[in-house]
Amino acid sequence: MFLITVLFWVCLAHLLYVYVGYPLSITVLAILFGRKVDRNVAFQPSVSLLVSAYNEVSVIEAKIQNSLSVDYPAELLEIIVISDCSDDGTDDLVRGFEAKGVRLIRQNERLGKSAALNFAVPQARGQVLVFSDANAIYQPDAVRLLVRHFSEPRVGYVVGNARYYESGSESSSAKSESLYWKLETYLKEKESDFASVVGGDGALYAIRREFFTPLQATDINDFLNPLQIIVRGFDGVYERDSICYEEAAKSFRLEYRRKVRIISRSLNALRRVPAVLNPFNGLRHWIVLVSHKVLRWFAPFSMILLLVLSLVLWRSPIYRVVAICQVVFYLLAILGWQGQGKHGLARAFTLPFYFCLVNLASLVGCVRCFRGNLSSQWAPPRQKVAS
Hints:
The chain is built from 12 helices and 8 strands. With 387 residues, the protein is an alpha/beta fold. It has a domain at 47-293: Spore Coat Polysaccharide Biosynthesis Protein SpsA, Chain A. An 8-stranded mixed β-sheet has the order 3-2-1-4-7-6-8-5. The relative contact order is 0.14. The model has no long low-confidence stretch (mean pLDDT 90).
């Protein structure tokens, strides 16, 4: 029983640290040990804006128009649409903008985003590579605010502020994702102040051209490349004022699939760059990486154990209270699951459900990574096809 009790408290401490302790800790660390930001606001390197696309006929024209309207010198901005063998008319729409300087680089066999980037990046001419999704709509100053940080030699990558919006009526999944993303945004800002922002964002992030490393088919570029840059001794910065907007997933199911894919590939990225897990290679980044990502990805294992152990220890009042709280929380999550698609469903149901959904995605993502079940191809959630 002693070992069971110890394991119970370890699991509880794990969960409390991930969701309460770490946000408080990184806030204090950023205040006490924050780094000074030194950037030249007039710095304007040549930029290649790389838009990854697979069958994006519904959004690609708006994306190109948006890219052409960004507030950055036209002679320094190269716009490239990378098509992963699209067959829905996306490429024809892109070709219609060639007279305005938009380049189409087409991969004639569908091999996935990573292979498409390997093919396209050597053809890009910019000093800085800005990666974007086809449905990410930039604020006019997004690129300028992003790339100015490269005036500081220590900066290897910069991550922008991707925000989510809902088309039509506001879905429960969009509301929940918005709240979740507010916490993520806060953590990114504090991590950037203290050490380096953990990972990039496929919608809006930039790296120095020379830091792009060829990817394997199952790699996730916006998490792996930043890790590779960190082990080279450079930092990552979060720029909250560089803003883009993406449409949130219309259902919990689509959001779940997206998170499983991201987590499985991100965990695999740690296996590709194991040096980042050595605290002696950079203690500050190790703290934020392990706290924000690794411990959170493994949180569902502690959730399962905590419930089982609290039931085993039921006879003691304190463990009985913890068990009852968990059961009530999971019942609310089940009611939220049953109420999917119902407008006006209370957050008392949708938030517990979304919390459990995110952790289920972490659990499945970890299992898929351990089993080597990593797909090299993916279609955006709005296309509603299997990943």
